[in-house]
From TrEMBL:
Lineage per the UniProt record: Bacteria, Pseudomonadati, Pseudomonadota, Alphaproteobacteria, Hyphomonadales
Cellular compartments per GO CC: extracellular region
Protein's name according to its UniProt entry: Trypsin domain-containing lipoprotein
Record's signal peptide: 1-27
A single GO molecular function term of this UniProt record: serine-type endopeptidase activity
Organism, as annotated: Hyphomonas adhaerens MHS-3
């Protein structure tokens, strides 16, 4: 079915682990920045029947996906109340957002760490369903260290350098999460996929935490079941234009979320992890849920603390924390819809990249050895895909994050694929018909954004919207990068070349 044998099948896409889906219920300290009434409160805007059941489209998490997840709780109005997330980063320490533990102090009489308004701070580890939390899963906080440069910035006093660690009163023997050591493993540099989890709100209409019962007694939380979802990381620009620029800082923050706002973290998720996966599917934490304008709002991605920017702080308190220079998972999975969307968008730039197979021609025989020659007439970032008559898209170049750096081309620079220049054998598609080779030159800062999709088999509900939002985001990002063009020609820094060809037996 694959015509060009070294290509990775798009089927790899369906191995992506999490999907997008459902939510839960409520609860958050009142004074958090999202609650600032001076921010426009565009509420979650799916049709009611969808909003009521789907919330922010997180999905119940599998416990085994988040074994290091920590839930923070205190006591409000006499009721145990869950209000933030965190992650175990060593047997003694949990990572969270500074704003989750702001103002915490040690009560000299009891020796316990307390937060203003919610009393003694506790950490629950190993819980996916808060109704089943047992006393042996509950830890008391015996120390709280907030990043020394934590502050509130901008007109909305959003948290800046929003990171802290909390010490457990006894060792946690379960899994800990690895932390991203550098911006090289932070997948937002190529707009890669990320995943978050939390017990936060799934619907803005949820003003207060819900009440539940557990063996321990009654408690309050926005939801009782841990939710998770996949969201794309975004260019810093997507957040710095949407949020008060004076406080958005891409060295300490990661921007993530759909442009359509379909899936988002929300109040109560703060402090929890934003994770990425490496090439082998192993997770590592890149972000901490920090703030956003309302939740799930179109055009308003959310802000996550960039963990790699705080390696020194974390290591100064928790030297045993594991930092990793990870090689991120393969991220360019283009769909037919995405490719067609991109072709439509760049139509006026068609012809600025010449594409040929061998010495030219458009009809090839099965088994024939071929090489693809790409000659761009503009400078920029090269992307090459193949679309076959069955609708399958194959990535030709660059197909993984490691190739990003070699994808920059100059005008008249001839590129030969496969990259080694060795010819490869071509075979007919499963469905008869023509195939299309599509080569694009995109503005340099586009890096690698693919039409990444969650695992469809695990995603229900508004997947169509999500699906479209991926290619929407990609085209949105392309247009955004096109606006850097030095002249009034919006296509000055883009080019496209298409080649229709067929392969016969
Ligand atoms: N500040 C919130 C909290 O304390 C997290 C908000 C995340 N907002 C968003 N739109 N993703 O729980």
């Amino acid at each position: 079915m694959r015509k060009i044998q070294y290509l990775q099948p798009l089927a790899g896409l369906f191995l992506l682990a999490f999907a997008a889906c459902t939510g839960m219920a409520s609860a958050q300290p009142d004074a958090f920045p999202d609650e600032d009434p001076s921010w426009p409160r565009t509420e979650f805007s799916l049709p009611d029947e969808t909003a009521g059941t789907k919330g922010f489209n997180t999905q119940p998490a599998r416990k085994e996906d988040w074994p290091f997840f920590a839930a923070l709780r205190g006591t409000r109005n006499g009721l145990v109340t869950y209000d933030c997330g965190g992650t175990a980063i060593s047997s003694e320490w949990v990572l969270t957002a500074a704003h989750c533990v702001e103002g915490a102090t040690k009560n000299a009489a009891t020796g316990q760490w307390e937060r203003p308004g919610s009393g003694a701070l506790q950490i629950v580890l190993g819980a996916r369903d808060l109704k089943t939390v047992a006393p042996n899963q509950v830890y008391n906080a015996t120390d709280v260290r907030i990043a020394p440069n934590f502050t509130r910035g901008g007109a909305n006093k959003v948290p800046v350098n929003d990171i802290a660690v909390v010490k457990l009163d006894r060792p946690w023997n379960g899994p800990v999460v690895r932390l991203s050591a550098s911006s090289a493993s932070d997948v937002d540099r190529f707009f890669g996929p990320a995943y978050f989890a939390g017990f936060g709100k799934t619907d803005m209409r949820q003003k207060e935490p819900e009440r539940y019962n557990s063996a321990e007694g009654p408690f309050a939380a926005y939801t009782d079941i841990l939710g998770n979802a996949m969201i794309p990381t975004r260019s810093p620009k997507a957040c710095s234009t949407d949020y008060q620029v004076d406080s958005y800082d891409s060295t300490s923050m990661i921007c993530a979320g759909y442009d359509t706002g379909i899936i988002d973290s929300c109040q109560g998720d703060s402090g929890g992890p934003l994770i990425a996966r490496d090439f082998a599917g192993r997770v590592y934490q890149i972000g901490i849920v920090s703030f956003g304008e309302s939740c799930g709002v179109r055009g308003k991605p959310a802000v996550y603390t960039r963990v790699s920017g705080f390696k020194d702080f974390v290591q100064s308190v928790v030297p045993e924390a594991v930092f990793v220079d990870a090689k991120p998972e393969k991220t360019v999975y283009m769909t037919k819809a995405g490719l067609e969307n991109l072709i439509r968008t760049l139509k006026p730039a068609d012809g600025k990249v010449s594409v040929r197979i061998n010495e030219g021609g458009s009809e090839f025989r099965s088994g024939e050895r071929v090489r693809i020659f790409i000659d761009p007439s503009v400078k920029g970032r090269l992307w090459v895909f193949d679309l076959d008559p069955s609708g399958a898209v194959s990535c030709l170049f660059p197909c993984n994050a490691g190739e990003v750096d070699t994808a920059l081309v100059e005008p008249q620079q001839s590129v030969v694929l496969p990259p080694g220049g060795v010819s490869i054998s071509i075979s007919p598609p499963t469905v008869p018909g023509d195939s299309t080779l599509a080569a694009f030159v995109l503005p340099e800062r586009m890096a690698l954004i693919g039409d990444t999709l969650p695992d469809l088999s695990r995603t229900k509900g508004p997947i169509r919207t999500v699906w479209q939002s991926y290619s929407d985001i990609m085209v949105f990002e392309v247009r955004d990068a096109m606006s850097d063009a030095p002249t009034s020609d919006p296509y000055a820094n883009t080019g496209m070349g298409l080649l229709t060809y067929s392969v016969s037996e």
